[in-house]
Amino acid sequence: MLRVAEQTLSAPGYLTHALGVKQFVLTCAVAMALGGGDVAAQAPAVPTSLTLDAALARAEAVNPSILAARARRATGVAEIAVARERLNPEARVELERETPTQAYGISLPLELGGKRARRIAVSTAALRTTDAEITQTIVVCGL
């Protein structure tokens, strides 16, 4: 047996006055016109079928392990850019008050022995390793 409790409902004070009711109805109508319409019409379109390739692409795009591996790749690309930079020249000026002495100096570091090329090669190899790790992560995840 189902019992329904009876309640006395009372409207808020602004709805008991005729002008308040009109204002409330007008507000609701404006809200409905501006976007409070049919909820089903606002729902995003869901594809009716999902192919295996689309499912794998979606899983690969949201997998946290793969996203982390791809973030490491961006770091590797930045390391190559840093390795390609040349050393900055330095300029120095020294003035002393005690003795009327002034000193000027300029230094331009020269990298001899292919240090820059080796830095670039190491960074490129690290990027290739990161690419291999991304591939390995995708394989381990079963995608």
Give a topology summary:
Layout lengths: L12 H4 L1 H17 L4 H4 L9 H11 L1 H21 L5 E7 L4 E7 L7 H26 L3
Antiparallel strand pairs: 1-2
Helix pairs in contact: 5-6
Q: Could you characterize what this model shows?
A:
This protein is mainly alpha-helical and 143 residues long. The chain folds into two domains: 11-39, no CATH class; 50-140, no CATH class. The protein is 58% helix and 10% strand. Strand 1 and strand 2 form a beta hairpin. The protein is flat, with a radius of gyration of 35 Å.
Write down the domain tally: 2
Bulk shape:
flat
Instruction: Indicate the mean pLDDT.
Output: 76
Q: What is the ordering of alpha helices and beta strands?
A: HHHHHEEH
Largest sheet: 2 strands, antiparallel
Low-confidence stretches: 1-10
Q: Give the count of helical stretches.
A: 6
Share of helix among residues? 55-70%
Please compute the radius of gyration using only Cα atoms. 35 Å
Number of strands: 2
